[in-house]
């Protein structure tokens, strides 16, 4: 039988915990070192405010809204500051003896093998070693070695579009293009999704990386026996096995003297002279899979938004098409990067697309080592970030910031360039930037060189809103366009350009 003291214990527990939370909230709101920074009351009281925004795909949009309301520095969590000014970009992201490092909790979940990739490692020395080992493959010259491989896959994409029923759906087709390119470069074996056949490896990678950040924040989620968690756990060993298989196969081909180019070749032959080390097999697996995640959706999203924004503006479409067709007049000859990269208007259009519709304009959070950020001392361990989505919409740097105006880049100032950071800044910026430029520019040039492109009326602005889960993708997952070939398919066949799947 329950005693009187049993009944007395619960009210005491509830009372004690209410008192604890009350004191904690009063401390956070009034006495915390960040108490004087402006921000919503809920965010000052609890980190769950921003967690809720992330889970409901509003993190980036909410931060932008808060910066417009409260100014350049906002307290967005009990122990977190968000910035949208220029000075803090340097303080948070630039090389420094007191760097703001990535927080380990979030990134641990990305690991497939127990080791980390260049993206997920939070250790400064380890990151430096991996960047050095990867740098040659990702250099401008290294990437140009892969141009023939990239062009060949773009030819298949173009042929698919030329032979597809019109209007053609470009969202999936463009994702397939970049999945095939990055798998070809990272694994020395294309997923060949442009053939129309689903690929188990591609599906497994998507399944795992959709939920893995949660595994870092909440390690027990790895063992949840249901839904996406179970699917991710099952996908993990399959990814490891298949990628190790690609590595072993390519190593054998290298031994026989293959001349095949790609990132895997560079990774297998790279040696870091500072540490006298090479990449281990686990590191090869981690990095080559990471390149699929980092390189395919980002490039596809960029191409899709460029096509969309340009199609809505006849004068931009006309000027861009003319520039590309003047540079590449023979529709039977695949555009070359050395010419594409010098086309001034194309570069403006790409810059403006990345400013307004960049795929990673969400923020990457860091930890303050206890130093001055944006002109004020920020205590050790405070989470800090600078929101690219907000700096790229600063109305002083970019008048009429929501308007798509490629011409603004014709007179770009250093300030505009530092406020627009689609590839981030500092030593953790995008290592794949040159590769992204090569594959995106070649695709855009090939599309406008070969087709007259027009937006299908069923594509709405709502479908093109960016879905904000870190990677900011096309929410409607469809982009229909009418692509009218400038050469008919019989002629193309004669010139060997019509090697696609067809419909
Ligand atoms: C238009 C295309 C792309 C955009 C806009 C983009 C943007 C970015 C951004 C903003 C970051 C920093 C992320 C952070 O701080 O958390 C990043 C990092 C990274 N990106 Fe890209 N990226 C693109 C294409 C690529 C490609 C094609 C690859 C390789 C195949 C790649 C590989 C990486 C890697 C490995 C990192 C981590 C670098 C490090 O931490 O040292 N990216 N990218």
UniProtKB/TrEMBL annotation:
It comes from the Eukaryota. The chain crosses the membrane at residues 7-30. Keywords: Heme, Iron, Membrane, Metal-binding, Monooxygenase, Oxidoreductase, Transmembrane, Transmembrane helix. Its cofactor is heme. It holds the Pfam family p450. Heme binds at residue 430. One of its GO terms (molecular function) is monooxygenase activity. Belongs to the cytochrome P450 family. This is Cytochrome P450.
């Amino acid at each position: 039988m329950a005693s009187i003291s049993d009944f007395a214990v619960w009210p005491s527990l509830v009372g004690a915990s209410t008192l604890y939370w009350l004191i904690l909230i009063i401390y956070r709101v009034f006495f915390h070192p960040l108490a004087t920074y402006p921000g919503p009351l809920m965010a000052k009281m609890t980190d769950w405010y921003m967690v809720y925004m992330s889970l409901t795909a509003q993190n980036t949009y909410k931060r932008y809204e808060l910066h417009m309301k409260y100014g350049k520095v906002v307290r967005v969590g009990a122990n977190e500051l968000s910035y949208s000014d220029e000075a803090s970009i340097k303080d948070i992201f630039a090389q420094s003896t007191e760097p703001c490092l990535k927080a380990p909790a979030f990134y641990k979940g990305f690991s497939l093998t127990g080791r980390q990739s260049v993206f997920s490692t939070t250790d400064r020395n380890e990151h430096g070693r991996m960047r050095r080992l990867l740098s040659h493959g990702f250099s401008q010259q290294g990437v140009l070695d892969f141009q023939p491989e990239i062009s060949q896959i773009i030819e298949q994409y173009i042929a698919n579009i030329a032979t597809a029923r019109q209007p053609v759906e470009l969202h999936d087709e463009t994702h397939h293009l970049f999945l095939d390119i990055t798998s070809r470069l990272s694994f020395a074996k294309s997923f060949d999704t442009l053939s129309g056949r689903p690929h188990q490896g591609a599906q497994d990678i998507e399944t795992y990386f959709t939920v893995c950040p949660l595994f870092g924040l909440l390690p027990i989620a790895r063992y949840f026996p249901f839904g996406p968690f179970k699917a991710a756990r099952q996908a993990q060993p399959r990814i490891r096995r298949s990628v190790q298989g690609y590595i072993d196969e390519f190593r054998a081909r290298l031994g026989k003297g293959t001349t095949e180019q790609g990132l895997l070749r560079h990774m297998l032959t790279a040696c870091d002279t500072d540490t006298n080390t090479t990449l281990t097999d686990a590191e090869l697996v981690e990095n080559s899979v990471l390149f699929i995640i980092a390189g395919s959706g980002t490039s596809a999203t960029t191409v899709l938004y460029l096509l969309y924004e340009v199609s809505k503006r006849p004068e931009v479409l006309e000027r861009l098409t003319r520039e590309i067709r003047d540079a590449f007049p023979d529709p039977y000859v695949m555009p070359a990067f050395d010419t594409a990269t010098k086309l001034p208007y194309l570069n403006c259009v790409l810059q403006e697309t990345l400013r307004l519709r960049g795929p990673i304009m969400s923020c990457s959070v860091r930890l303050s080592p206890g130093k001055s950020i944006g002109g004020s001392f920020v205590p050790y361990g405070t989470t800090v970030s600078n929101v690219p989505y907000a700096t790229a919409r600063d109305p002083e740097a970019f008048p009429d910031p929501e308007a798509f105006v490629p011409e603004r880049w014709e007179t770009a100032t250093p300030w505009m360039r530092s406020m627009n950071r689609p590839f981030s800044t500092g030593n953790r910026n995008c290592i794949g930037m040159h590769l992204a430029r090569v594959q995106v520019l070649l695709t855009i040039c090939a599309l406008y060189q070969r087709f007259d492109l027009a937006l299908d009326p069923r594509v709405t602005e709502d479908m093109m809103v960016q879905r904000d889960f870190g990677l900011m993708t096309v929410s409607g997952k469809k982009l229909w366009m009418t692509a009218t070939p400038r050469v008919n398919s019989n002629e193309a066949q004669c010139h060997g350009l019509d090697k696609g799947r067809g419909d």
